[in-house]
Amino acid sequence: MLRPFAAIALATTILASAVHSADEPPETNHRLVVARGIEYLVGSQADDGSWSKRTGSGVTSICTSALVRNGRAVADPVVAKALKYLESNVQDDGGIYVNGSRLKNYETCLAMVCFKDANRDGRYDKILNRADKFIRGLQVGKDDGKDKSDVNYGGASYGTDGRADLSNTAFLVEALVAAGANAEDPAVQDALVFVSRCQNLESEHNTTPFAAKINDGGFYYSPAGEGENPKEAPQGGLRSYGSMTYAGLKSMIHAGLKPDDQRVKAALSWLRKHYDLKSNPGLGDAGIYYYYHLMAKALAAVNEPHFEDAEGRKHDWRRELTEELARRQKPNGSWVNSNNRWLESDASLVTGFALLTLSYTK
User: Fold this and answer.
1) What is the C-alpha separation between 70 and 162, in angstroms, rounded?
2) Using CA atoms, how far apart are residues 96 and 87, in angstroms rounded to an integer?
3) Collapsing DSSP states into helix, strand and coil, what is residue 234?
4) Kindly report the CA angle at 351 between 347 and 353, in degrees rounded to 5?
5) Whole-model pTM?
6) Ramachandran bin of 71, using left for φ above 0, alpha for ψ from -120 to 50, beta for the remaining angles
7) What is the average pLDDT across 212-241?
8) Which of 146, 159, 255, 324 is most buried by its number of CB atoms within 10 A?
């Protein structure tokens, strides 16, 4: 239950949001939307500092990063309690995951980014250094007896099953960067090998059977042809979709690819043709908040304040994303997807994604 002063503050915020007019500056709208989302997370945190613990520690990392990136201090009681919970999941092998987890890479990578966001005075340096070694050990490569001819080479999976996917590889690259890796780091360059194989672009970087079947420059989940790949029946290939294309673009930028690289140009061309805030292109409403989050990160990395679509229209993507999230926000300050795919019916997870997105649209 909210304390009286918190309840009054929340009611005031909701009222202010309700009377918000189109003539108000976007910054005001942004502050209101963020404040309401934060208030929801504060009120839904468990006593042990976690959110949605039944799914592992990943949601807690996402929510904690969202709070810190939107201005909550590390010493704030809600943030401090969450970080203490995450520290309790640091394992002897350096990984950061709940006991018995099958999602060791996913949970560790998200926790590393969170600890990097909260790393004041180097307090989490040791945790980050040990976790860095752990995730490098999970990456498919020479240590597994694999060479670059293996379709999974350079990638990462949820845990240790060996079947890599682009989503987890993108998390891996972000975590490596959080721990201090640069574009020339061998692990980042190995990840680029896998990322390039997830693109519908026939080139020397992708000679897999799927590369030429659609060849539209977008990205799919895995060249292994398993898991979350949506099939494209006419060509027999793997359909490109929005969230993975932004994940691929962002990972290529982290790996040092420049705007004139054919892979970057092809990815941007696909995204310009499919600029959309009403759906996750190729998947409808499935994973749309994960899509928003990746979109904001990737476009911030591209550093284009106005993103031009294929028809020549320039989009103030920061303002448009803020307005779309404001429209979708629930009266209690949360966000939730009616489509449960990838757990997006979990309000804590989706609110975390929404607030992370808004941290890039200030």
Assistant:
1) 36
2) 8
3) coil
4) 120
5) 0.90
6) left
7) 77
8) 255
